[in-house]
Design brief:
Helix content is 29%, strand content 17%. It is of the alpha+beta class. The structure holds zinc ion.
Amino acid sequence: MVKSTSRLRILDHDLRTLTQRSGNRCAICKRLLTADSSPPDREVILGDVSHIVAYEPDGPRGDSSLTSRERHKYDNLILLCNTHNRLVDSQPQTYTVEKLHSIKDAHESWVEETLGKRIPYERPQLSYKVDTIYSTLLPLQELPAYIYGVPCSLRVEAEVQAMMTPLRKVRSSMSDELEMAPFLLRGGYLYAFQDLNEPDNPFKPLVPGQSAERYRVGEWWGDPDYMRWYVDLLNRALNKDSVLSSGGKATVASCLC
Ligand SMILES: [Zn+2]
């Protein structure tokens, strides 16, 4: 199992749901996973959020068709104490995927019976408010529906720009437009609106042979950090548009909502 320090972060609502449904106890020994503070010492976390199918394909029970994102979901997570986390990782033949799911289900049923009420799995609720903006913001009629991410060893954006395929001109009925390719480098990944699995995407020279993951934008909106990244990426698209507008209109070449 790999802890939640993997490259992509486990979303808060998945962690919260797991902790609530598990009663903050190990799914095997039912030990409470926090020890009270003993001033001046702080409270101690005694457990791990662990993956049933490992985050890395070569980890315990890692041979699976689940995507990296699916491996970080509540359905693939189990709460264990430090001792049992080490045990299930050391004995993957004994603690199979099926067995761990069975242990998790039985434990959550036990928590439900103990508490008398099962804690619902709550999807994050996005809050909206109506506001009026007076600014030079560009109007947006459509948003990209997907973000693509691929592992990338480069850490400097100028290096990415130097290696990218030159942007293409895209013909439209009105004029020639330049395809735009905003991107972000975060946590060892390159994120972009372009389908990074397409053979002619502009980032192909950077990550040859790498398979990209696709995320629905709504999935990112549920997490504050990912939401910030999404806004950064969108702002880059708009800035690019304003830069290119002197020589022609730019367009985002990606799937739209
Ligand atoms: Zn335990």
